[in-house]
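Incident log, support desk, overnight shift.

02:14 A customer reports that sequence design results differ from what the structure should imply. Their input is reproduced verbatim below. On-call engineer (initials T.W.) acknowledged and began investigating.
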């Protein structure tokens, strides 16, 4: 999360904020600021600069380390990376401004990375900016358009590839029913309260979908939800069957018809069914709320500054 002071800083300087990142530009130099494991990290792409220039920047910053109050400076490929330790969970605005002013002045005075290099094709005269893997970078309009177009095509292909949905569905039903066995046993011995263990059914269906090599795609959550509903209903019918056997009632269509004619029993059945479904579906909430399996998450991230 972005801490208050960085948000204030971003607002004051008209920087953009996106999730855990703040993005801004000072005199043509681009900055991405991220909160990473107790550090505030300032990232500046300086593409195509020579190793001597990199060393020059590192020497300059290290010479002023005490006054600039940063923790570490390194070059990660061509990305100048300066870390500030988060003391009291928030770095002071003056400290951030101090660093930014100093580094920008130094880069400008030494003519470093004057020519805007496109981070996609590596050529000069970039005319657009984009977020690439969360970094704010210079790009050519035509390069970013081409990349986005290709990613969309790749995403479409990935989405259309076989997800093994059918076999996965069979697996999910199989897993759901197998996992309902402990639930049934618990319900026989501990009665109604054991219905709360129906969570196992949801978990079993999900694991079994993966075990049967079902891949995650846009339909997965609905397949698993359907398998859970089927498993829970089967589970409830098995329980009724067990009650029949215990009471010497033959298991037949007529017996079930009689069962569903008694209002009290039907109400009880519905109640148990609802709680079981609720508990079982809890197990798959994560796949409904996480976009983890959205195909675009498997692809590199390119986003235009202005969409
Ligand atoms: Zn380009």
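02:41 Re-run completed on a clean worker. Output:
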């Amino acid at each position: 999360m972005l801490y208050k002071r960085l948000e204030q800083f971003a607002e004051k300087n008209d920087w953009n904020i996106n999730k855990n990142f703040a993005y801004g530009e000072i005199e043509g130099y681009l900055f991405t600021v991220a909160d990473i494991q107790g550090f505030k990290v300032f990232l500046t792409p300086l593409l195509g600069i020579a190793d001597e220039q990199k060393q020059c920047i590192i020497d300059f910053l290290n010479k002023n380390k005490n006054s600039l109050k940063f923790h570490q400076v390194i070059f990660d490929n061509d990305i100048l990376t300066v870390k500030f330790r988060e003391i009291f969970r928030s770095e002071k605005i003056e400290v951030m401004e101090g660093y930014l002013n100093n580094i920008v002045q130094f880069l400008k005075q030494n003519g470093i990375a004057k020519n805007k290099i496109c981070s996609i094709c590596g050529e000069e005269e970039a005319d657009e900016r984009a977020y690439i893997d969360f970094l704010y970078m210079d790009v050519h309009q035509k390069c970013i358009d081409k990349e986005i177009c290709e990613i969309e095509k790749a995403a479409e292909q990935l989405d259309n590839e076989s997800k093994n949905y059918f076999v996965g569905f069979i697996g999910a039903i199989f897993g759901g029913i197998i996992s309902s066995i402990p639930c049934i046993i618990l319900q026989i011995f501990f009665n109604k309260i054991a219905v709360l263990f129906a969570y196992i059914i949801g978990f079993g269906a999900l694991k079994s979908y993966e075990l049967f090599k079902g891949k995650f795609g846009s339909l997965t959550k609905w397949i698993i939800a359907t398998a859970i509903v089927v498993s829970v209903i089967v589970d409830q019918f098995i329980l009724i069957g067990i009650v029949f056997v215990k009471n010497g009632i033959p298991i037949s269509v007529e017996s079930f018809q009689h069962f569903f004619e008694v209002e009290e029993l039907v109400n009880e059945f519905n109640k148990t069914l609802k709680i079981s479904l609720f508990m079982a579906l809890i197990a798959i909430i994560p796949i409904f709320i996480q976009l983890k399996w959205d195909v675009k998450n498997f692809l590199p991230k390119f986003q235009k500054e202005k969409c």
